[in-house]
Amino acid sequence: MTEEIIIAGFGGQGVLSMGKILAYSGIMQGLEVSWMPSYGPEMRGGTANVTVILSDLPVSSPVLNSFDTAIILNQQSMDKFEPMVKPGGMLLYDSNGITRHPERKDIRLFCVDATAEAAKTDPRIFNMIVLGGYLSVRPFLKTENVVEGLKKSLPERHHQLIPLNRQAISTGMEIVKEAL
Q1: Cα(19)–Cα(17) distance, rounded to whole angstroms?
Q2: d(Cα 68, Cα 1) in Å, to the nearest integer?
Q3: Core-most of 61, 127, 131, 140, by most CB within 10 Å?
Q4: What's the rounded Cα separation, in Å, for the pair 169 and 164?
Q5: Is 76 left (phi over 0), alpha (psi -120 to 50) or beta?
Q6: What are phi and psi of 57, to 5 degrees?
Q7: Phi and psi at residue 4, in whole multiples of 5°?
Q8: d(Cα 121, Cα 164) in Å, to the nearest integer?
Q9: What's the CA gap between 96 and 38, in Å, rounded?
Q10: Is 147 strand, coil or helix?
Q11: Where is average pLDDT lowest: 35-44, 72-81, 98-107, 112-121?
Q12: What are the pLDDT digits (tens) for 112-134?
């Protein structure tokens, strides 16, 4: 099993954190892992993406030109990475800010309205709702490992937010839907 993932959006959306949590989760599950972030000099608002590879075999290179899964959080990322999803792969996106929805027919498309859902409670959980949507569609990582990955990636001063983030993951798992 090998899963090659790109997560892409704006800085400040939790793109790199989502990737780091997936990477830690994979390590805790005994998988080989690669985590390679890419971002501009801006702190927030600039583009950001992260490549995560989870595999039961050694990872030979973190550099990828195509992906099994793309998690897309803005239109610029949709334009850039939709063509890079392998035929038969999956694209998961948050519809907020998307002006041109994915058009490919050779991949599975899923939508999770994480922005709208996070606005109801706490905007900081946006990325965990998206992550929950991903975990619902690709359930090969155990939820308890994801929570442990969350603990590893969050600074200890924010550990009181873990129950809120755990609930956000559950919410994402419930609201993700296949896009037609």
Answers
A1: 5
A2: 11
A3: 131
A4: 9
A5: alpha
A6: -115, 160
A7: -110, 120
A8: 10
A9: 22
A10: helix
A11: 35-44
A12: 999 999 999 999 999 999 999 99
Can you tell me the distance from the alpha carbon of 160 to that of 14, in angstroms, rounded to the nearest whole number?
18
Give the length of the chain: 180
Look-up of token digits 């994915």 = 102
Asked if 47 and 76 touch (Cβ cutoff 8 Å), the reply is: yes
Domain spans of the chain? Answer: 2-178
Cross-strand partners of 2? 55
Q: Is 30 left (phi over 0), alpha (psi -120 to 50) or beta?
A: left
2-178 adopts what CATH topology?
A: Pyruvate-ferredoxin Oxidoreductase; domain 3 (3.40.920)
State the residue for tokens 């994480």: 114
Other CB atoms closer than 10 Å to residue 132's CB: what's the count? 28
Q: What is the pTM of this model?
A: 0.93
Q: Which amino acid is at 46?
A: G
Distance of CA 140 to the CA centre of its chain: 14
CB 13 within 8 A of CB 42: no
Rounded to an integer, what distance in angstroms lies between the CA atom of residue 16 and that of residue 121? Answer: 22
Closest alpha carbon to 111 in 85, 89, 123, 129: 129
pLDDT of residue 42: 56
- Residue 139 three-state SS: coil
